[in-house]
Amino acid sequence: MNIRVKAFLFFLLCVAQAQSGFGKITLPSLVGDNMVLQQKAEVSIWGKAKAQTTVAVTPSWNNKKYTAQSSADGSWRLKVSTPAAGGPFTITLSDGESLVLNNILVGEVWVCSGQSNMSMPMIGYKNQPIKDSNAELLLANNPNIHLFSVRRAATRTTQEDCVGKWEVSSPKSARAFSAIGFEFGTILERSLHVPIGIIHSSWGGTPIEAWISEEGLKAFPHAKVIPPSDTTQVLPRNPASLYNGMIHPLLSYGIRGFLWYQGEANRNSYARYDSLMNVMITDWRARWGQGNSPFYYVQLAPYKYPENLNNSPYLREAQLRVMQQVPEVGMAVALDVGEENYIHPPNKSEISKRLAYLALAKTYGWEGLAHSGPVYEGMQVDGSKIQLTFSFAPNGLSTFGKELTDFEVAGDDRIFYPAQAEINAQGVVVSSPQVQNPVAARYAFKDWVVGSLYNVEGLPASSFRTDNWEK
């Protein structure tokens, strides 16, 4: 056989392989074996197939055939009606060739995102443990919980796909997964008795600006987005870079709501944090197109920051404002579970539990379940004392045996002094012998504190101040 014949045969083989590959249905990483679909919803299934051909999708829960016409580049998308929670099911796709997806569950799907405290896996970080992680992993063999981790990707332009795969919960898969995401999902599965899917997309040390779309950042001149023509390396702290690579690929996937744990990287620019977070929540909700999907987040935990600027209480204050400004959000306070010398609190179980209280009470309608700690409501000066009142404390307040500490009061000179504090029928009354005419009070308004004020349901109060004096 001469060289020309060999070359021609090789050409025919390449053409056949290319045609065969082009005809095969391909799917984004989120759509595959082991995925969990949001129950009682119209969810998207999408991918690529032969150009200008009919793609059929048939789920086993109703054996109904859904069809879509692929475009010139082979892209297609359709909506499928999901039943009440259940499974496992199969989904058969065909454009002439069949593809079967196995072990599909229908239940509740949540996206969790943020920086290192959301990234922190069940196994912990080097010399930084997760409390009771091994005991939690004893219960990780659960076919009703499926986990998806988005591989880190900071990109200059929006991406349509990400790298990752759905995994069934096991000690092996859970130990490398977000501790907050896994433990939240475990509580939901035990409480709701339905399949749970958790999609984890986070990156340590990143500011909130990186997680907001370019369009959302237009109102913030300080957040300069790198143009597509720029050839410099894209960094995870660059504005919009993580939205592009790690949030945008998720937008078509049907979900119930969001969990967010971030703030450390923005503590020195606290003044605009609530505005940024407000925009991010609004932007994500609009792009997912599911209305005001629930958005629950963790307030920054106390920590002794080495620069000692005492900025984190102002960041916590901004996070508290978001709870009061944005509909269908909730904040899990972590004022009592911080660590003086570790920025990553090991007690993720307590934080996850508080996020679950929010979801179960506010999203799933569980009556009788407290979901918020006391929130400062108002003050009344009575001589040398200030009476503080609180919402979310219908049955009153408690320290659960702790000393009531970290209150301060100030007069017109704006100098704060440690205050004596006492719980009474109206809330908390505070005073200091050094301030005869108090005008303002603060609670736990420092980088490092250990919270001591709770409602009787055991949920802690956020740090707060009654004044609005500049730092």
In CATH terms, the superfamily of the largest domain is SGNH hydrolase
What is the fold-level CATH name, i.e. the topology of the largest domain? Rossmann fold
**Percentage of residues in helical conformation:** 10-25%
DSSP strand content: 25-35%
> How many separate domains make up the residues?
2
CATH architecture of the largest domain: 3-Layer(aba) Sandwich
Derived from helix and strand composition plus strand pairing, the structural class reads alpha/beta
User: How big is the Rg?
Assistant: 26 Å
SS summary, helix count: 9
Point out poorly predicted stretches: 5-22
Number of strands: 23
C-alpha geometry: elongated
Average pLDDT reading: 95
Give the termini separation.
85 Å
Largest sheet: number of strands, sense, barrel closure: 11 strands, mixed
Task: Tell me the name of the CATH class of the largest domain.
Answer: Alpha Beta
GO molecular function, one term: sialate O-acetylesterase activity
Protein name: 9-O-acetylesterase
Signal peptide: 1-18
Domain Sialate O-acetylesterase: 108-351
